[in-house]
Amino acid sequence: MKIFVTGYGVISALGNNVAENFAALKSEKSGIKQGEKSFTQRYKVGEIAFSNEELVDHFQLTQHASRTALLGMIAAKEAFQGHELNDTIRTGLISGTSVGGMDTTEVEYKKFILGEAENREMYRHHPSGTTSEQIAAELGVSDYINTISTACSSAANALMLGARMLQKGHLDRVIVGGTDALSSFTIAGFRSLMIFDEEWCRPFDESRKGLNLGEGAGYLVLETEETIQKTGKQPLAVLSGWCNASDAYHQTASSPDAIGACLSMKGALEIAGLEPSAIGYINAHGTATPNNDLSESHGIKTIFGEQHPPFSSTKAYTGHTLAASGGIEAVFAILALQNKAVYPNLNFSNKIEETGLTPVTQFQSKEGIQHVLSNSFGFGGNNSTIILSAI
Amino acid sequence: MYILQAIASISHQEVFQKELFWSNLHALEAETNIQHPDYKAFIPANALRRLSPILRMGIACAKSCQEAISEPFDSISVGTGLGCLIDTEKFLVTINTTSGDILSPTAFIQSTHNTISGQISLDLKNHAYNMTHTQNTLSFEVALLDGMLCVDEGKKHVLVGAADETVPFLKRLQPDIVSDEYPLTSGATFMVIGSENKSDAVGIVACELSFKQRDLTTWVDAFLAKHQMTAAQIGLVLHYDALELNDFQNKLSYAPLVGYNMSAPAFAAHLAVDWLKDSANQGAVLLINNMDSNKQALTLFQKA
């Protein structure tokens, strides 16, 4: 059974919607710059300029919530625009997030520690599950709501669960993706891991030192063939492959031989019924940490051999948006199929000596591109791959 | 039907690796302790030191389940309502009280919701599908439904579980944000499901969710009818909050037995399974998760 994508939405440091994101990708313009918030100003981050109040006003949201939930509402609303709720079409929302409402919690908790008066009501926004309930409420969706929290592979896993539920007939239509706001909690967390690059991140470059964080959200609407006949929606792409596997190597580091990554890429190709040679572009996880990019390069070589398809990481455009990245990059994958183009891996100059892989370095057209493979790898050795295919 | 191959819980009741424990259950007092097993049997001592209760409980339950079956898990699906609260709070304190640039990353790494499922895969060297779900009081059921989907897809030994831990901070949020009706507790329940039947087995027939307020009587009737059952065939109804369902003789609130944590329904699932294992009990068990009237779940258990 084919799983069709009939809607997409994205907000990131590149722009507020799909069109703005694609324009930035095309113009090779990164959204990463020196942070402007008290907790981001020391770093280069992919920050969204609006304050929370501005987000609510500008995007006409009906709820005040955590920034994670607000960003999710914006991208999910764009994805679901033009779709109608209907009693005969069971519609769900599966959303990935790593920190949920931590951006609100950390503000109140700090007051608590300092002995200042907190607004305890704000803690209601904390649970990750609540962010999804708020996003679902914004869309009016209530047949099924679930939140995946597998760190940086969350959104990819949400896509996968949505596709599986449609295949088994548990839902007729599902909005899937992920959202994460920048928070002082995650900034401090990645600082404690010492995997920040103070400069612009350089995925797959020999000189890479670490990542730049980002924030955003990305969602797709998935429908079955049967549902499309009812909704009359024009599909944008097919979600043709998916797989999640566990690296079982280390809580935060990837295995040198990329066991989990190879399993997830291989599994997704099997579900899609594709040979590796059918893949026209790989949107790599490519966080620009020394460990991830080396391990992922080994994985790509193992699965694709020396004749690997064009590949790049778009993290140097958006920053690493954690649980949202798989959703945002799924939108980028569909844009690649629609526009027959592949994206440059910004800031690349020298191959990683050990693996010798050269990513795409310029925005370029790619005639005949039929299938895009997208990787998302998370803490806990949680490795996911999805494949999006042209109609 | 989804057949239970193993089940293990750690809670404030003495149930870990025990069967037919109903006669030993008691209503929890305000300050009760978790009945921790000797974790050294499951976790190496050097690793144990840095693990919070939610991780210890989750890993020990998962490993206990693994020991009870012959093959490695071919899928792992874990639910948690609030995740690793102790490490989350620890890291929040650290970032607000530490000056200078050097922060210990341990609490941050272990604050992520999927630390539980990740540690299980790591400890068991398990490369299978590994998922973490979090949906407030329905976290167990969304993880269970994913596990059932894995069985439908042909997986044979699917680990499904839920775990939550409490922190003193939650008391400050009572009663408006966190319920104060029952003691705040911690707990973990893990089980293995598959499709292969065996003698004396207990199975899960179905699980259904609702994300809006709805009339339970009508919903329960429709749910039972869908599975060719009547109220008379239900030997026990387990529910959290009070409910009015007049057609059922034997109803019990599990809330006084497990207390308040978002994974409490997972413990109730263990209560259902253990009740069915007692040959003196007749009929099926309907588990009603009505911890939150805005989102509820029905799960049906019976002897296979």
Task: Describe this protein's structure.
- The complex is a heterodimer of chains A (391) and B (304).
- Chain A is of the alpha/beta class and 391 residues long.
- Chain A folds into two domains: 229 residues, Thiolase/Chalcone synthase (Peroxisomal Thiolase, Chain A, domain 1, 3-Layer(aba) Sandwich); 148 residues, Thiolase/Chalcone synthase (Peroxisomal Thiolase, Chain A, domain 1, 3-Layer(aba) Sandwich).
- Chain A is 34% helix and 19% strand.
- In chain A, the strands form three sheets. In chain A, strands 5-4-6-7-1-8-14-13-9-10 form a ten-stranded mixed β-sheet, sandwiched between helices. A two-stranded antiparallel ribbon of chain A has the order 2-3. In chain A, strands 11-12 form a two-stranded antiparallel ribbon.
- In chain A, helix 10 links the parallel strand 9 and strand 10.
- In chain A, helix 3 runs parallel beside helix 5.
- The longest helix of chain A is centred in the C-terminal third of the chain and has 15 residues.
- Chain A is globular, with a radius of gyration of 19 Å.
- Chain B folds into two domains: 193 residues, Thiolase/Chalcone synthase (Peroxisomal Thiolase, Chain A, domain 1, 3-Layer(aba) Sandwich), CATH 3.40.47.10; 102 residues, Thiolase/Chalcone synthase (Peroxisomal Thiolase, Chain A, domain 1, 3-Layer(aba) Sandwich), CATH 3.40.47.
- The model of chain B has no long low-confidence stretch (mean pLDDT 96).
- With 304 residues, chain B is of the alpha/beta class.
- Chain B has a ten-stranded mixed β-sheet, sandwiched between helices.
- Chain B contains nine helices and ten strands.
- The N and C termini of chain B lie close together (8 Å).
